[in-house]
Amino acid sequence: MNGFADYEYEEWREGAACADDTEGIFFPDEGDVGAILRAKSICADCPVADDCLAYAIETNQSVGIWGATMPRERRKLKRQWIEEIRRAS
Description:
mainly alpha, 4 helices, single chain, about 90 residues, about 50% helix
């Protein structure tokens, strides 16, 4: 997917709320609702959450929380965005 963000990974990542995450909290077990909610709450205040989400979708990140989304949420968003692009064409 092209056009969602024009950035280099390192540039936006430096400003991310999770930049110093050494504990891996953004890769919780899928059934650990508490850990997922904690990670997503950090994303909610992140100044680069949109860039993070775009990166995850563009690079097909299949694990972890990116831009406050889980993999299945990103797959759904990607399908929606592709459909919107098709309709606009």
